[in-house]
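lol ok so funny story. i was supposed to be doing the assay writeup but got distracted and ended up predicting the structure for this chain instead. priorities right. anyway since i did it might as well share w the group, maybe its usefull for someone
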Amino acid sequence: MKEKTVMMITSSMLDCECKGNGYVFLEKGGMIRCPIHHACASSEEYRLEMLRLEYQNLRKFVLQIPKMDTSFIDLSLPTTAKDVDRYIEETYDVLSPESWVQALQHFVRDYLINHHPQS
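and the output, tada:
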Protein backbone atom coordinates (compact mmCIF):
# COMPACT_ATOMS: atom_id res chain seq x y z
CA MET A 1 0.00 0.00 0.00
CA LYS A 2 1.10 3.56 -0.53
CA GLU A 3 2.42 5.32 2.55
CA LYS A 4 0.00 8.24 2.19
CA THR A 5 -2.96 5.86 2.16
CA VAL A 6 -1.62 3.87 5.11
CA MET A 7 -1.06 7.02 7.17
CA MET A 8 -4.57 8.22 6.42
CA ILE A 9 -6.37 4.95 7.23
CA THR A 10 -4.39 4.36 10.42
CA SER A 11 -4.71 7.84 11.88
CA SER A 12 -5.79 8.03 15.50
CA MET A 13 -6.91 10.75 17.84
CA LEU A 14 -3.21 11.37 18.53
CA ASP A 15 -2.75 12.44 14.89
CA CYS A 16 -5.39 15.14 15.22
CA GLU A 17 -4.27 18.76 15.50
CA CYS A 18 -5.35 18.60 19.16
CA LYS A 19 -3.16 15.50 19.79
CA GLY A 20 -6.18 13.88 21.42
CA ASN A 21 -6.41 16.26 24.35
CA GLY A 22 -9.27 18.35 22.94
CA TYR A 23 -7.45 21.68 22.58
CA VAL A 24 -6.22 23.22 19.34
CA PHE A 25 -3.66 25.96 19.84
CA LEU A 26 -3.89 28.66 17.20
CA GLU A 27 -0.85 30.08 15.39
CA LYS A 28 -1.66 33.65 16.37
CA GLY A 29 -2.27 32.74 19.98
CA GLY A 30 -5.24 31.45 21.85
CA MET A 31 -6.95 28.13 21.52
CA ILE A 32 -10.24 26.50 20.66
CA ARG A 33 -11.77 23.18 21.61
CA CYS A 34 -11.42 20.51 18.96
CA PRO A 35 -14.86 19.70 17.50
CA ILE A 36 -14.01 15.99 17.16
CA HIS A 37 -12.30 15.49 20.53
CA HIS A 38 -14.14 18.15 22.52
CA ALA A 39 -15.02 15.82 25.41
CA CYS A 40 -11.36 14.78 25.84
CA ALA A 41 -10.60 18.29 27.09
CA SER A 42 -13.06 18.08 29.95
CA SER A 43 -12.78 14.43 30.97
CA GLU A 44 -9.52 12.52 31.38
CA GLU A 45 -11.53 9.35 31.92
CA TYR A 46 -13.25 9.83 28.55
CA ARG A 47 -9.90 10.56 26.82
CA LEU A 48 -8.34 7.40 28.27
CA GLU A 49 -11.36 5.35 27.19
CA MET A 50 -10.98 6.70 23.65
CA LEU A 51 -7.31 5.67 23.65
CA ARG A 52 -8.21 2.24 25.02
CA LEU A 53 -10.78 1.72 22.27
CA GLU A 54 -8.35 2.81 19.56
CA TYR A 55 -5.74 0.39 20.90
CA GLN A 56 -8.24 -2.48 21.04
CA ASN A 57 -9.37 -1.75 17.50
CA LEU A 58 -5.80 -1.78 16.17
CA ARG A 59 -5.04 -4.95 18.14
CA LYS A 60 -8.06 -6.69 16.58
CA PHE A 61 -6.80 -5.58 13.18
CA VAL A 62 -3.38 -7.15 13.90
CA LEU A 63 -5.09 -10.41 14.78
CA GLN A 64 -6.91 -10.33 11.42
CA ILE A 65 -3.75 -9.78 9.36
CA PRO A 66 -3.14 -13.50 8.69
CA LYS A 67 -6.63 -13.77 7.19
CA MET A 68 -6.01 -10.86 4.80
CA ASP A 69 -3.49 -12.71 2.63
CA THR A 70 -3.94 -16.46 2.70
CA SER A 71 -1.24 -17.00 0.07
CA PHE A 72 1.45 -16.15 2.63
CA ILE A 73 1.67 -17.37 6.22
CA ASP A 74 3.71 -15.14 8.52
CA LEU A 75 4.50 -17.16 11.63
CA SER A 76 6.05 -14.13 13.33
CA LEU A 77 2.71 -12.36 13.69
CA PRO A 78 1.06 -12.38 17.12
CA THR A 79 -1.92 -14.75 17.32
CA THR A 80 -3.65 -13.61 20.52
CA ALA A 81 -4.38 -10.27 22.16
CA LYS A 82 -1.85 -11.10 24.89
CA ASP A 83 0.77 -11.88 22.23
CA VAL A 84 0.16 -8.47 20.65
CA ASP A 85 0.48 -6.72 24.02
CA ARG A 86 3.64 -8.67 24.87
CA TYR A 87 5.21 -7.88 21.49
CA ILE A 88 4.44 -4.17 21.83
CA GLU A 89 5.80 -4.06 25.38
CA GLU A 90 9.02 -5.88 24.42
CA THR A 91 9.63 -3.99 21.18
CA TYR A 92 8.61 -0.41 21.96
CA ASP A 93 9.18 2.01 24.82
CA VAL A 94 5.61 2.13 26.12
CA LEU A 95 5.13 4.25 29.21
CA SER A 96 1.71 5.83 28.72
CA PRO A 97 -1.62 5.03 27.08
CA GLU A 98 -0.60 7.32 24.20
CA SER A 99 2.65 5.42 23.66
CA TRP A 100 0.79 2.08 23.51
CA VAL A 101 -1.48 3.41 20.74
CA GLN A 102 1.46 4.97 18.87
CA ALA A 103 3.50 1.76 19.11
CA LEU A 104 0.69 -0.39 17.76
CA GLN A 105 -0.02 2.20 15.09
CA HIS A 106 3.64 2.00 14.05
CA PHE A 107 3.49 -1.81 13.91
CA VAL A 108 0.34 -1.74 11.73
CA ARG A 109 1.73 0.98 9.47
CA ASP A 110 5.00 -0.88 9.02
CA TYR A 111 3.16 -4.07 8.14
CA LEU A 112 0.85 -2.39 5.63
CA ILE A 113 3.62 -0.44 3.93
CA ASN A 114 6.16 -3.27 3.79
CA HIS A 115 4.16 -6.49 3.65
CA HIS A 116 0.76 -5.81 2.15
CA PRO A 117 0.50 -6.11 -1.64
CA GLN A 118 0.36 -2.87 -3.60
CA SER A 119 -3.10 -2.01 -4.83
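The two ends are 6 Å apart (CA to CA). Residues 13 and 34 are 11 Å apart (CA to CA).
back to the writeup now i swear
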